[in-house]
Design goal:
The protein is mainly α and 196 residues long. It has helices at 3-21, 28-34, 39-45, 49-72, 78-99, 103-109, 111-138, 147-166, 176-191. Keywords: DNA-binding. One of its GO terms (molecular function) is DNA binding.
Length: 196
């Protein structure tokens, strides 16, 4: 097994154990036994449980980043693409948090610790928003004075509603059509979308 496959397996086993038993209740020994790797192998890749926890979070963010990139590559109008990227992101984060069971409590409690790992994801996301905005600008769908600033603002707005969205405090009582109307008004009002 190659180095990267071994590390990926350790991260996957840790993800499953964290989801089932909780991060606090999972030991490095549990991860080594469940992965059928020795403790020495585990410590070759990760110095601590905290390090492997952050690797699990990073792995989930890489999957999310790939999902968003696929949406950005779809053949659709930039305005529809922007909304789909936003919904893909929010729904995927919500699904990851809920799928991982006991990780949910850690996600909300340790959100600032997770922030260190998110820096790379955040940079990719801003670039993705920027690319869609540039496409929209070049096709005359958006009229934006500063694309870099608009991409950063969209990123921080979406990031800001992440926790309330996951907890069901935003839009939980709205049907999809009403929710889409509100989101469209906010996003497209800021982007000065033209009707096409």
């Amino acid at each position: 097994m190659t180095v990267s496959r071994t590390k990926a397996k350790l991260v996957d086993v840790a993800r499953q154990l964290f989801a089932k038993m909780g991060v606090e209740n999972t030991t490095m020994n549990d991860i080594a036994l469940a992965s059928k790797k020795g403790r020495r192998t585990l410590y070759t890749y990760f110095k601590s449980k905290d390090e492997i926890y952050l690797a699990v979070v990073e792995s989930e963010l890489d999957i999310l980043s790939d999902m968003m990139k696929k949406v950005s590559e779809k053949d659709m109008s930039p305005d529809k693409k922007m909304l789909e990227i936003i919904y893909t992101r929010l729904d995927a984060i919500k699904e990851v948090v809920y799928r991982n069971g006991t990780l949910r409590a850690n996600f909300f409690r340790d959100i600032w610790r997770v922030e260190k790992v998110r820096k790379k994801f955040d940079a990719k996301e801003i670039q993705l928003f920027k690319a869609v905005l540039q496409e929209g600008q070049s096709k005359g769908v958006f009229h934006i004075d500063d694309i870099d600033m608009a991409a950063a603002i969209i990123h921080y707005c979406v990031k800001g509603i992440e926790v309330p969205y996951i907890r069901g405090q935003i839009g939980a009582d709205l049907d999809d059509q009403t929710r889409n109307k509100y989101v469209s008004n906010i996003v497209f009002g800021a982007l000065h979308r033209t009707e096409i």
